[in-house]
Each structure stands twice: as C-alpha cells, then as structure tokens.
C-alpha cells in the first residue's frame, strides 16, 4: 500500500527540513512519498526546499503564492496527492514534528486492516513528556461554538485595551486551582488503548482511501484554528470512523513560527483571537445552514 506524507511549510525552513529528514532517516517502508506545500512563505524558503530536494523522486514541492491558511494550504497538497499519486493513505503532519518510529507506516496499514478507519489520530508526544492526543472537546454543539465566539470577542477587547497582562494572570491562577484532574484522568485512560470517535489533534492526522475518495481535504472555511472541531462535526454527520491509536507515535516540538512572526505578545494574542473568531464563525454558519446538521442548537438547550 502506498503512503504519502503531507507537510505544510511556512517560513521556518529549519523545522521543515528536520521533519523531512526524520522521515527519510527513520521510516523503513519502501512505498512512500513526501509532498511539501510552501504556504506563501515569500521568504525564499519554498525555493530553497525545491532546490534541496529536486533530485529526490520521493519528494514533491508545491509553492503557493499566497498564504491559504492551515486547512486550505493542506488541501492544496491533499488534492495534488489524490489526483496524481494514487495513494492509499495521506499522513498530514505539522512541519514541527519528528518521526523516529521505524515501523510507522507498517502500523498504519496494520491498524487500518484491523479497524477500517476513515481518519486515524496517533500518539503525539510533547517535549515536556505530555501527550496531546486525543483532545478534550470543548465545542460539541452549535451552542458551544457560539459561546466560544462570545468569550473570544471579550478576550480580544481585553487585549486591545491593554488589560491582557492582568487577564493572563487571573487565568493562570484559575487554571492552577482547577487544574485538570479531569484532563489528567482522561489522558491516563486513553493513552494506552484504542479509542473510537474522539476529537483528534490536527498536528498529525492519517486519512485512509475511504476518506480520500470522498473528500478533498479538510473543511475549507477555517484559516487557522477549529480544524479539529470541523473534522469531528463532519465525521459525526457523515458517519465516519475516527480512531486514536497509541501504537503510532510522533514527536511534536511545537513551532515557534507564530511567535517569531508576532514577537509582540499583544499582537500575537489579537492575531489568535481574530483567527479563532473567523474560523469559529464560519463553522457555526456552516453547521447552522447544514440540512443534515447533527449539532443542532436544540441539542443542549
């Protein structure tokens, strides 16, 4: 079975090369390819990647003149793979991830033969030793998304009016008080076993042929953030099988790209708020007008 890795590149060439080289050095599977999408970097790094890997027949570089966002940047590569490579699995991974598992691809095939998944999430290990997959869903209905929009609108006003430092201190204090016995218990229960129909982390997603044949990638209404929520909604609506498996692993270094672009913390947080609001609003509108809506407003009223 053929497996294609899809990596979205944006400006940080060092982390993208580390990701590519980790696949080349550690993945022992023969029938794989790598597609890198330069998502409008406009700093010459896309061309550098093109030059560096031009003789490697396993690697394809696609250069987009504009930044299409996370979903649509990945969709550009997803559609290329679907139309040109006749692949059985698309492994969509962040450029700030590292693969060290030699049987990474064999485990994909093994898990699909056993569970017949549409989308598979894997064990994502952070530098501090924590595991970030599956995620704990905070948006499971249309009402949840609308509440998030209201919260983030208020948060944006706080940062605009230079009250962000005070707001961050309060939030840190509250989070320490509440800290997450529920999250810790949740993660302990799920990290060492297969789980079905959970919300998967977008840093590493594996799409099988059944998904590839049916879709051209991720929901296209988001620029940044809410991709996982949209995927879970579509999975519930279309009866897709999402699984999490702990026997496929990846290291997520957590990119510094956004911090490097917006070194001013105020601008960085406003950037975050703007993108959450845009993505959440688009998804809420999409769900509200979807005739087969499974997250109806009445669900939690």
Characterize the structure shown.
The protein has about 300 residues and is of the alpha/beta class. The chain has a domain of about 200 residues: Spore Coat Polysaccharide Biosynthesis Protein SpsA, Chain A, CATH 3.90.550.10. The chain is about 45% helix and about 20% strand. It contains eleven helices and nine strands. Strands 1, 2, 3, 4, 5, 6, 7, 8 and 9 form a nine-stranded mixed sheet that branches. Helix 1 links the parallel strand 1 and strand 2. Helix 5 runs antiparallel to helix 11. The radius of gyration is 19 Å and the shape is globular.
Question: What's this, in brief?
Answer:
Helix content is 47%, strand content 18%. The protein is an alpha/beta fold and 301 residues long.
Percentage beta strand:
15-25%
Which secondary-structure class do the elements indicate?
alpha/beta
Mean pLDDT, as a whole number? 88
Helix-strand pattern: EHEHEHEEHEHHHEEHHEHH
List key phrases describing it.
alpha/beta, 9-stranded mixed beta sheet, 47% helix, 301 residues, 9 strands, single chain, Spore Coat Polysaccharide Biosynthesis Protein SpsA, Chain A
Mind sketching the topology for me?
Elements: E1 3-9, H1 13-26, E2 32-39, H2 45-52, E3 59-64, H3 69-84, E4 89-94, E5 97-98, H4 104-115, E6 119-125, H5 142-160, H6 164-178, H7 181-190, E7 195-196, E8 204-208, H8 209-214, H9 227-238, E9 242-252, H10 257-261, H11 265-289
Parallel strand pairs: 1-2, 1-4, 2-3, 6-9
Antiparallel strand pairs: 4-8, 5-9, 6-8, 7-9
Helix pairs in contact: 5-11
């Amino acid at each position: 079975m053929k497996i294609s890795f899809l990596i979205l590149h944006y400006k940080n060439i060092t982390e993208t090369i580390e990701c590519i080289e980790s696949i080349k050095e550690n993945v022992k599977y023969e029938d794989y390819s790598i597609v890198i999408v330069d998502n409008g970097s406009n700093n010459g790094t896309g061309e550098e990647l093109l030059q560096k890997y031009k003789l490697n027949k396993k690697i394809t570089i696609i250069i987009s003149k504009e930044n299409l966002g996370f979903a649509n940047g990945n969709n550009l590569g997803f559609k290329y793979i679907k139309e040109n490579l006749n692949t059985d699995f698309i492994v969509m991974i962040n450029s700030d991830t590292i693969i060290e598992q030699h049987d990474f691809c064999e485990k994909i095939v093994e898990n699909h033969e056993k569970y017949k998944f549409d989308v598979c999430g894997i064990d994502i290990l952070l530098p501090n030793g924590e595991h970030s997959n599956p995620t704990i869903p905070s948006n499971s209905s249309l009402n949840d998304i609308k509440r998030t929009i209201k919260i983030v609108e208020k948060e944006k006003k706080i940062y605009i009016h230079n009250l962000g430092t005070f707001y961050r201190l309060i939030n840190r204090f509250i989070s320490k008080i509440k800290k997450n016995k529920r999250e810790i218990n949740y993660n302990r229960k799920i990290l060492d076993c297969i789980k079905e129909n959970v919300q998967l982390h977008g840093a590493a997603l594996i799409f099988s042929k059944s998904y590839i044949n049916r879709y051209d990638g991720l929901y296209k209404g988001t620029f940044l953030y809410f991709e996982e929520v949209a995927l879970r909604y579509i999975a519930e609506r279309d009866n897709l099988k999402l699984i999490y498996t702990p026997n496929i692993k990846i290291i997520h270094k957590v990119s510094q790209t956004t911090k490097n672009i917006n070194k001013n913390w105020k601008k960085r947080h406003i950037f975050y708020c703007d993108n959450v609001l845009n993505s959440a609003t688009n998804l809420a509108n999409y769900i509200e007008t979807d005739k087969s809506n499974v997250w109806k407003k009445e669900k939690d009223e």
